[in-house]
Automatic annotation (TrEMBL):
<dbReference type="GO" id="GO:0051920">
    <property type="term" value="F:peroxiredoxin activity"/>
</dbReference>
<dbReference type="InterPro" id="IPR052512">
    <property type="entry name" value="4CMD/NDH-1_regulator"/>
</dbReference>
<dbReference type="Pfam" id="PF02627">
    <property type="entry name" value="CMD"/>
</dbReference>
<dbReference type="InterPro" id="IPR003779">
    <property type="entry name" value="CMD-like"/>
</dbReference>
<dbReference type="InterPro" id="IPR029032">
    <property type="entry name" value="AhpD-like"/>
</dbReference>
<feature type="domain" description="Carboxymuconolactone decarboxylase-like">
    <location>
        <begin position="27"/>
        <end position="111"/>
    </location>
</feature>
<protein>
    <submittedName>
        <fullName>Carboxymuconolactone decarboxylase</fullName>
    </submittedName>
</protein>
<feature type="domain" description="Carboxymuconolactone decarboxylase-like">
    <location>
        <begin position="164"/>
        <end position="247"/>
    </location>
</feature>
Amino acid sequence: MAISDTARRNHQELFPGHVSTLARTDPELIEYFDNFAFDEVLRHGSLDAPTRLMAQLAAMIACQAVSEYRVMLWAALTAGVTPVQVKEIVYQAVPYVGMAKVFDFLHATNEVLTEQGVELPLPGQSTTTPGTRAERGLAVQKQIVGASAVEQMYAAAPADEQHIQRYLSANCFGDHYTRGGLDVPTRELLTLAMLVSLGGCDAQVKGHVAANLNVGNDRGRLIEVLTQLLPYIGYPRTLNALRALDEVAPAQHTPEQDTPEQED
């Protein structure tokens, strides 16, 4: 087997002049991985390169793949993902993956950006204050999740858990989803990429499939994102995500899918 011309070209566009050491030590693996990830998978759908790479970076944070994250971060910047967008991916991961896991990725991001000559800190993207974060967060939470669903979450929570619901509105949504740098539909795609890649978040994956649909990311777009995550997160988590998608947004049956009956 040899690496296809298409895979070589796509790889070169993302990693100009870079030759992987694994191509020398593990040539067979790299041949079929590159043919899969940089040719076959890229032929599916029409997801633009920056969105694809942002979703992959989000997934790598959730997977704790810091070495691969560094490599793909260079590729993302080469493909046109901006430093502000990169930082917002990392910040968006904090409420979903947790600061304990995001910490090393924040430092890795700063190191790569500094190596690229980017001056830190970047311009601030916060749009709320301590006085407005709760109200703004609740509003955007209702926009994304649905007002009735949010009200039901508050109503169902016992009195001694109400503070967690308030944190969810003010912190997760108020501190993060209201930020600039990325729009809400993109943030929802990134959140889904993280939850899928974390594993063990089946209920949350289903909830954010529905949330993505609410903000305009349709079934086709979600399948495109999951397809581009597959080489990096593996089949089990991808198939689990597809099951959640099928439960929330089943494929529409079309007449073309019917099997013609055989005539006697």
